[in-house]
Design a protein that fits this description.
The chain is α/β, with parallel strands linked by helices. The protein is 37% helix and 11% strand. Its EC number is 3.1.-.-.
Length: 147
């Protein structure tokens, strides 16, 4: 089984005990973390931005507090950091004509990053178009909680 890149919503659900998907995220993570899990600058920045926002309910934390929590979690031997090493402009990896809309841009990018790293993207999103990434197969996308 390949390493799973956790998308922003999965990271948020893991860090926020009041998140609607917190239990499901922890269930999945508990079953899969030993296979390896990854973050990248986009997922880290997105998680810090959202959780440190004054308007985010239930958590009153600064970016420094959120990053400290993340650093402690990421010290785990099962964690991998993937640099942002792909571009949506790379037509050898991406098929821009298959991106279904503006809301899929980051999802498709993360799927491409997972494919490039021989991994899979772990997400709650059921609408990520596999065809937008050359070489993406169903095994490259894990929809958590998908029944």
């Amino acid at each position: 089984m390949s390493i799973a890149l956790l998308d922003v919503n999965v990271l948020i659900a893991l860090f926020d005990p009041a998140h609607i998907d917190h239990v499901e995220a922890h269930r999945w993570f508990g079953l899969n973390r030993k296979r390896g899990w990854a973050t990248c600058p986009i997922t880290i920045n997105g998680c810090v931005r959202i959780l440190s926002s004054p308007g985010y309910p239930g958590i009153n934390a600064s970016p420094a507090e959120i990053t400290a929590r993340m650093q402690a979690s990421f010290a785990n031997v099962d964690h991998h950091f993937w640099p942002d090493s792909v571009s949506l402009l790379d037509e050898a990896l991406f098929r821009p004509s298959m991106i279904t809309g503006h809301k899929n841009i980051t999802d498709v990018y993360l799927l491409g990053l997972a494919v490039r790293n021989h991994g899979r993207l772990a997400t709650f999103d059921q609408s990520i178009p596999l065809k937008a990434v050359h070489g993406a197969a169903p095994g490259n996308l894990v929809v958590i909680g998908n029944k």
